[in-house]
Amino acid sequence: MHFDSHAPFDTMFKSNIRNFLAKRQARMNSSEYERIIVIDDGGEVLDQIDDFIVESDRVVGIEQTSSGYNKLKFKDHQIPIINLARAEAKKVYETPFIVEGAIRLLSQRFEGLRKRPEKILIMGQGVLGRRARELLSAGYKVDGYDIVEEKSDMRAEDLHRRLGEYDVVIGCTGTTSLTAEQHGKLKKGCTLISISSPDREFDAVHLRRQLAVSGQFCRDVEVDGIKLLNSGFPINFNAQEETESLEMIQLTRALILGSILQATRPQRQTGFIELDRGLQFLIADQFQRGVMDVQDVVVSRPTYARLPAKPAHWKFMSVRG
């Protein structure tokens, strides 16, 4: 996909996905495939696919991101969608080490700043934001903001006034946490860093449009004293090697594979379907035994408190060679 720095990524991506599906519509509706499994990251394919399929009972979706789940959760779907995004095994085990990879990159980038940050504001205090705050608080003064007042260090009406206090603002919401109108309230020299989804956290396209158009996807830009890392895209979108170790990322791969295996079986409902709990337990158990017990793991060791006990239907997904 060609990148245009003067266009929002979501707009470009939506158009590209529509073209992608249109070119494959005839094949998707032919008898060539017994089952079509759509693995989505961000929900755009699953948001549009109902417009392109005739026999929806042959299609099963898998959504693996929270941003995709939030995009799709209020829509009526013709197809079943395995809800990998909200699987407890993913939230309890995967999110901590994904965040740690992003924080390691942040620490490296902080070293390249003109001045070491003193105060950091984290936008969003969900699972991602809370973990980021926990890790950064050891070395920095960190405040958190969330639209849910009980999770926030400040009220919504105070955010506008206090934005000028912070050297760094980190976006963890997956939505637009800072609008273009709020950019003028930021401290001179403030650095904006996203660790969530595409380039929507800080209304990044507004800043990029003040510079010459560029096709370079992930570059740092500076406008009117505001530094936007990675063009507003997540800090770990760096077109380089994974920030997580190969051992740790096996959990992600196993959960995706498990979702695919579940999608091969007949589904009795449309819309979001929970990833099989027995399968989640099996993967989490093996991950903890085979990886976390032998790795020098930095993340806080999770527990099974939020995972179900070993269910009776363990026979599901017993795959042998």
Break the fold down into its secondary structure elements and pairings.
Elements: H1 9-28, E1 36-40, H2 44-48, E2 59-63, H3 66-72, E3 80-83, H4 88-111, E4 119-123, H5 127-136, E5 141-145, H6 156-162, E6 168-171, E7 191-194, H7 204-208, E8 221-223, E9 226-228, H8 250-263, E10 271-274, H9 277-292
Parallel strand pairs: 1-2, 2-3, 3-10, 4-5, 4-6, 6-7, 7-9
Antiparallel strand pairs: 8-9
Plain-language structure description:
The chain has 321 residues and is of the alpha/beta class. The chain folds into two domains: 9-86 and 246-292, no CATH class; 97-232, Rossmann fold, CATH 3.40.50.720. The chain is 34% helix and 13% strand. It has helices spanning 9-28, 44-48, 66-72, 88-111, 127-136, 156-162, 204-208, 250-263, 277-292; strands at residues 36-40, 59-63, 80-83, 119-123, 141-145, 168-171, 191-194, 221-223, 226-228, 271-274. The strands form two sheets. It has a six-stranded mixed β-sheet with strand order 5-4-6-7-9-8. The chain has a four-stranded parallel β-sheet with strand order 1-2-3-10.
Short description:
Helices cover 34% and strands 13% of the residues.
Number of domains: 2
| Overall CATH architecture of the largest domain | 3-Layer(aba) Sandwich
Overall geometry: globular
Distance between the termini: 39 Å
Keywords:
9 helices, alpha/beta, 321 residues, Rossmann fold, 10 strands, 2 domains, 6-stranded mixed sheet, 4-stranded parallel sheet, globular, disordered C terminus, 13% strand
